[in-house]
Design brief:
Number of helices: 13
Radius of gyration: 23 Å
Number of strands: 22
């Protein structure tokens, strides 16, 4: 099996728009519409001086970028609107921000309004307030507010009252900066994951809150059965439940458990924070079901597109443990040699290059690796949390959420992982109570209609 990666007509049109215009734009879309594919293509191919950032370390590793706080020099704790941010703008950060043409933000739905305004403040301070919002830098955002909420400040924390008094909501789209600048929204429409029109209609209705009981009845009827495949991946909202299930399945798998320790330079593990990109100690056995947690590093050209042996989320089984840094994994009927992968923590640095167009030396931002994390790109995967299944695609899924969803978008994320109703299994019926939509998201999406690409481009 190989995975071909090429852009659709819609994605190509949006790429051209991002490359040739200067508008601030929020790129969103249902699960499986290729947001990450477009982001990676743009960052790799743009001629603009670009930095890609994300709100968390894990999200930053996934797109080869830097965390927002690190790149902008923003303090990691506290409400930013009550802090003198200009005091945190040091020379190197100032120079990097001055060189920017465009900043790309992934997982924008996790970015709070306060943090959005913090980025605006730092860019205006570095580049001159007279240049307007974001100091004249173009801002392109990727994400889906129907799937992931912002990281909110809790009641009782210093600054909580300030946020409630100054912001309509915690969401990025309610930042003050948008009162001074137009924010375009573009919603990708082509679905690369599901092709059943009935299933797509139900998923869309769950996503935006318009789902009916009749739709849920169809869903529950389809999922009311046990999977013949006992290894069908299980999605749960509770970490402890996932870990216990994986540990139990591993213990009941015949054979000897092997331990694979991550390879991280001495003193550098702390650079990856409390949530490293992979297990620091990975337990495996022959026969264990695993999930790839990183795209294949060995891209190969195929008919003008990239071809990968596996992608983030591919499911397989360990067939042989060859060495401490080498296992064999069977995916469908193919067996792949899997070696250590590398996750890089990067920091953008300024470099000088010769510009052929202007015949002058110019400063550009280049990513510099400051720490590396080496581990097999695998995780035990008889069960996975809904949160960690974000962006994944599965042929079969057992969902353990019915009646127990506890956050907005959780039910939609879980259900939209599977390709079709034929591959869906439910341990309990999905109820209307499980479909939770943040009213601020509904308001924003209603107020910012997305044109088709013919209308926008």
């Amino acid at each position: 099996m190989t995975f071909d990666i090429s852009l659709s007509k819609e994605q190509l049109a949006l790429f051209e728009f991002l490359e040739n215009e200067h508008d601030h734009i929020f790129v969103t879309g249902r699960a499986g519409t290729g947001k990450s594919t477009l982001l990676n293509h743009f960052v790799t191919n743009t001629k603009k001086n670009v930095a890609v950032v994300a709100p968390t370390g894990v999200a930053a590793y996934n797109v080869g970028g830097q965390t927002i706080h690190s790149f902008f020099g923003i303090p990691p704790n506290g409400v930013l609107g009550i802090q003198p941010l200009h005091k945190h703008l040091y020379g190197r950060t100032r120079d990097a921000l001055r060189s920017l043409d465009i900043v790309v933000i992934d997982e924008i739905s996790m970015v709070s309004a306060d943090l959005m305004d913090g980025m605006d403040t730092m860019l205006r301070t570095a580049r001159g307030k007279n240049k307007g919002p974001f100091g004249g830098v173009q801002v392109v955002m990727f994400g889906d507010p129907y799937q992931l909420p912002p990281i909110a400040v809790k009641p009782g924390v210093e600054g909580y009252d300030y946020l409630k008094e100054n912001y309509r909501s915690d969401w990025f789209f309610d930042a003050k900066v948008w009162s001074e600048s137009k924010l375009l929204r573009y919603e990708l429409n082509e679905n690369f994951r599901q092709h059943d029109d009935k299933f797509i209609e139900i998923l869309n209705a769950i996503r935006d809150g318009s789902v009916t009981q009749e739709m849920l009845d169809t869903l529950n009827q389809a999922g009311n059965r046990y999977p013949e495949n006992q290894d069908a991946i299980r999605l749960s909202g509770i970490n402890a439940k996932v870990n216990n299930y994986n540990s139990s399945r591993l213990a009941n798998t015949p054979g000897i458990t092997k331990f694979f320790e991550a390879n991280v330079p001495v003193g550098k593990l702390s650079d990856f924070g409390a949530n490293p990109p992979a297990d620091t100690t990975l337990e495996l056995k022959v026969g264990a079901q695993v999930m790839f947690i990183k795209n294949d590093d060995q891209n190969q050209a195929k008919d003008g597109a990239y071809a990968r042996r596996w992608v983030n989320g591919t499911i397989g089984h360990i067939t042989e443990i060859v060495a401490h840094n080498h296992v064999k994994v069977e995916v469908d009927t193919e067996v792949f040699d899997v070696h250590l992968s590398t996750w890089e923590k990067i920091k953008y640095q300024l470099d000088e290059v010769f510009d052929e167009n202007t015949q002058r030396i110019k400063e550009v931002l280049v990513p510099e690796t400051v720490a590396e994390f080496h581990q097999l790109p695998l995780r035990l995967a008889w069960s996975v949390t809904v949160h960690k299944s974000q962006g994944m695609t599965y042929d079969e899924v057992v969902i353990e959420l019915g009646g127990n969803a506890f956050s907005a978008g959780q039910t939609y994320v879980a259900l939209s992982r599977v390709r079709s109703l034929e591959g869906l299994y439910l341990t309990a019926p999905i109820t209307l109570r499980d479909v939770m939509i943040d009213p601020h998201v509904q308001r924003f999406m209603a107020e910012t209609a997305s044109p088709n690409y013919n209308g926008l481009f």
